[in-house]
Known about the structure:
By secondary structure, the protein is α/β, with parallel strands linked by helices. The protein folds into two domains: 146 residues, Nucleotidyltransferase, domain 5 (2-Layer Sandwich); 75 residues, no CATH class. Strand 1 and strand 2 form a beta hairpin. Helix 1 crosses helix 10. The longest helix is centred in the N-terminal third of the chain and has 20 residues.
Amino acid sequence: xxxxxxxxxxxxxxxxxxxxxxxxxxxxxxxxxxxxxxxxxxxxxxxxxxxxxxxxxxxxxxxxxxxxxxxxxxxxxxxxxxxxxxxxxxxxxxxxxxxxxxxxxxxxxxxxxxxxxxxxxxxxxxxxxxxxxxxxxxxxxxxxxxxxxxxxxxxxxxxxxxxxxxxxxxxxxxxxxxxxxxxxxxxxxxxxxxxxxxxxxxxxxxxxxxxxxxxxxxxxxxxxxxxxxxxxxxxxxxxxxxxxxxxxxxxxxxxxxxxxxxxxxxxxxxxxxxxxxxxxxxxxxxxxxxxxxxxxxxx
Length: 299
């Protein structure tokens, strides 16, 4: 029953994605009536995308592309309580992401883009006042996001930026080097305060002998040059934007991997996409409606 329902839902989602990107016909307003709105976000929203691997029978490990769409709520800074250890964001606006919805499938980047766009229309991303997109810097994610949501403020996930700094220090000074840790700490302070140009200058002075740079590039400066405008963390924090992509990373683990990546499991591609359609609707709080639809319109 679940497999049949998943196949029916997958087919309906495919038709919906095609409707969402179809050019407007004569007398038709663009996007009008393409996707029924459900729990639309009114003011500030975030869309984050990522990839996660599952095993497909006869194909090996393949990437599921996924997106998480969330409402963003911003409140006054929390401040610091007496005796409490200071944190980086004590005096930044508090940012909370909730009301998540998901979309995921074994798709290439362009096909994924259609499904992400359809889910975005459902949540009202084309009408929100402010839209951010926090991601890990993968080129395909940036391209799809810019195509679907050109007004979205793209932000490089802070933990990924920090990890790249530490990997660079390790390539130059070796693992657990005090000099490397000191250098990395200074660069993170500069990134946190938005001084990306200083980081670029410091990166340009580095040389690594007998060790590959992180990401396989000729110099780690290239990574920061490519993402410089996505690293204006001082401005993002002040504006109350999220700077972490934990929503989609949590979704990869709890929505996808917990069911699709159990020990010894492998999936036929068509069955995997059907189950993924059910899983994303379940974790988006729409399972009952999706189940009724799938039973009403079997493939």
